[in-house]
Amino acid sequence: MAARFSSLRLRALFIKEVLQVLRDPSTILIAVFLPIMLVFLFGYGVSLDTSAVKLGLVQQSGGPASLSLTSAYVNSPYFEVTQSNDKDALFDDLTAGRIRGIVTISSDFDRLYASTGKPGQVQIITDGSNPNTANFVSAYAQGVHAQWLLSESAQDDSARSGGIQILPQFWYNTALTSRNFLVPGSFAVILTMIGSLLTALVVAREWERGTMEALIATPVTIPEFIITKMTPYFILGLIAATICTLMAAYLFDVPFRGSIFALYALYAAFLLPALGQGLLISAALKNQFVASQVALLTAFLPAFLLSGFIFEISSMPTWIQAITYAVPARYLIPPLQSLFLTGNVWELLLPNIAILLGFGALFFILIFRVTKKKLD
Amino acid sequence: MAGPAFATWPAWARMKALVIKELLAMLRDKKGRITLVAPPILQLVLFSFASTLAVENADIVYLDRDGGTATAEIVQRIQGSPNFRSVTRVASEKAMEKAIDEQQAIAGIYFPQGFTADLKTGHPVPLQIVYDGRRSNASQIVNSYLGQIAASLNLSLAAARQGNGLRAPSEIVPSNAFNPNLEYMWFVLPSLIAMISAITTLAVTAQSVARERELGTFDQLMVTPLRVHEILIGKSIPPFLVGLLNSTIFIVAAVFIFDVPLRGSLILLFGAIVFYLLSVIGVGLFISSLSKTQQQAFLGTFIFITPAVLLSGYASPIDNIPFWLERISLANPVRHFIVIVQGVFLKAMPLMEVLANTVPLIIISIFTLSAAAWLFRHRME
Asked: How far B65 CA sits from the closest chain A CA (Å)?
């Protein structure tokens, strides 16, 4: 029986895998083009920053109070206001999605505002078909109104301007640029893609093409087989991570405040479970189409949805939160964002690296168990 | 196969034979059958429950140098709000900094000495709150929650000072059209129909030719009397059926399981689905004829679907992206179809608006299908 490891065999097999990766033109696509495209997309295409929302405004009154309220809306940086007297036409725009809300200042607004009876009414209708935007429009339309009310009354009623005034400070991202956390967060998605999705196909491919049988006939041992399958993709992953990091720092001006050493330790620690998961899927399923779909579902989508990258984990239902503990990307994102924006927060870095290595070990144990050198 | 007779079959019969072969290849083994049904359902569950941008269960720390009633009142109001999970007192600035650095809390409130006494004077009193800017989106939302608590406290303080003679001269009445209670599911489910049917349809189409190439059976297909356009049509029908089945399942699930109102015309919706699927199949065939291996086809699928989903207006509003990227996203079928499917479901979108969004789909599908056909012929020589 052959020894468990032989440097000669390892080298031969490694050369075979490297050649296979290099000869495939899609390799360049994976290691270079894909990270560039994805970082670009997340940097430019996804923004949670509050930009001006299109708002329709109907002013049925014409007095001084309603005019000054109207200009408060027009001057608000949160809204891009279209004024119209035709409420039905504005509602058609709301249906078509051309505007996101309608503010109506009623015809008796000025009369009621001046009198001491009922208050003058302002109505705000949002486009509820998108709840996030609707919440935003509703909150900011009310905010503009409250601010206007305060400034109107401040002249004659000093009591109203008193009270608590919150002075918020946003640490580590003072300008509140969502890009600063979305771009590092997107690396989790990109590395999962290279690590899990592409490796999910590599062992299944050998089975499908029948070359696995040829490999089985050689004295190659399982550990040699797995190590040589993994290494080229590990290197591709590190190249991609480097490209991502450089783009974040130089194209998107995301600050980097941690140490490079810690950063690469984290990348390497994350690539192990990512590659492990892909290889496990591939070894267990032996069919490329099925493996690709399973990898998509169990690796890519969780990295995108359940990692806390865009959507807050603490806001999810409890049973979904429980699932997120099994998603490796969840442990990458907080230390990664901290390395960029805060610095070396060891209390975040070390436990998360340890957990990622634990996941990696678990996947590799499972791979050894499912990879058998025999034919069914 | 009936050898020479096959060549004399009418075109439709030859295509039918190919379609049957494709369907058999797809449904033959158990794993393959499960793959067509299970992933869309899992995606439905994941997306619909996980993709919320709301912030609940936020953790707050505070440092109390005041010890007065106003501080206690604010802490109590935060504890009473459903948006917060915990409000923990810390002993020092250092502890507050540590809690935020290690992401144990999203915000820290600093109540200065004399806070309660200052409030009683009726002057403005600053209250410093620090947030974790690494989660700037969630931080801003938490800031707005805390702002509401402060505003309502200010109002009751002012009322107390003035002896209740306060009348608001104006009030604002918010309401939400199409979705009065802002049910998040009403937004998610229609959008999911667009995304999941595209993902499945594209994956099936892109793999079909690439698989034959990789296994070498493509050459066998080429020596049959099937003409190129017949192969293309034969390869398109099974993914089309898969996409149609998926979207139908989701429409039924949205209406009957998740109680999303379907207010518009189902006929208009299915009319749009046909062109939506065709445009996606065109992209799939294009990727498939470019790929030599399934791994390449899978990669191509990804390179298309990731931007298509990201630039669809689902994850972040189209209005937020730069103008040049917004122009590019006009070529994205998912973007147009999401408007239609949300509009038909919630807004009872009228015919003209549906048409206005279907025309781009028709143009995109003509373009992608002819590009695929051209490439297919081109690559065979």
From this structure: 16
Size of interface A-B (CB pairs under 8 A): 351
Q: Does B352 touch chain A (CB under 8 A)?
A: no
Contact A173 B136 (CB under 8 A): yes
> Are A202 and A335 members of one domain?
yes
Q: Do B126 and A180 touch (CB under 8 A)?
A: no
Distance from CA of A176 to the nearest CA of B (A): 6
Q: B150: nearest CA in chain A?
A: A164
Tally the domains of chain A. Answer: 2
The reply to whether residue A125 touches residue B176, judged by beta carbons under 8 angstroms, is yes
Contact B131 A198 (CB under 8 A): no
Of B162, B188, B212, the position where a domain reaches its end is B162
Residue A354 lies in a domain: yes
Instruction: Give contacts of B 310-329 with A, CB under 8 A.
Output: 310-311, 315-317, 319-322, 325, 329
Predicted-assembly ipTM surpassing the 0.85 threshold: no
A289 and B311: CB-CB below 8 Å?
no
Distance from CA of B365 to the nearest CA of A (A): 23
CA-nearest residue to A350 within chain B is B102
Give me the residue from A47, A163, A292 closest to B320, CB to CB: A47
Q: Provide the domain limits for residue A31.
A: 7-46+177-370
Q: Are residues B284 and B349 in the same domain?
A: yes
What would the 3-class secondary structure string for chain B be?
CCCCHHHHCCHHHHHHHHHHHHHHHHHCCHHHHHHHHHHHHHHHHHHHHHCCCCCCCEEEEEEECCCCHHHHHHHHHHHHCCCEEEEEEECCHHHHHHHHHCCCCCEEEEECCCHHHHHHCCCEEEEEEEEEHHHHHHHHHHHHHHHHHHHHHHHHHHHHHHCCCCCCCEEEEEEEECCCCCCHHHHHHHHHHHHHHHHHHHHHHHHHHHHHHHHCHHHHHHCCCCCHHHHHHHHHHHHHHHHHHHHHHHHHHHHHCCCCCCCCCHHHHHHHHHHHHHHHHHHHHHHHHHCCCHHHHHHHHHHHHHHHHHCCCCCCCHHHCCHHHHHHHHHCHHHHHHHHHHHHHHCCCCHHHHHHHHHHHHHHHHHHHHHHHHHHHHHHC
Query: Which residues does chain B have within 8 Å of residue A208's beta carbon, measured at their own beta carbons?
Result: 214-215
Nearest to A161 among B124, B151, B319 (CB): B124
List per-residue pLDDT tens for chain B, 381 residues long: 445 566 677 777 777 877 887 787 777 777 767 777 777 777 777 777 776 666 778 899 999 998 888 899 899 988 888 788 889 999 998 999 888 888 889 899 999 998 888 888 777 788 889 998 888 778 878 887 888 788 778 777 776 766 545 556 777 788 888 888 888 788 888 888 898 889 889 988 988 888 888 877 777 777 777 777 888 888 888 899 989 988 998 899 889 988 899 999 999 999 999 999 999 999 999 998 888 888 788 888 888 988 898 888 877 777 777 888 888 889 999 999 999 999 999 988 889 889 999 999 999 999 999 998 898 888 765
In a domain, B335, yes or no: yes
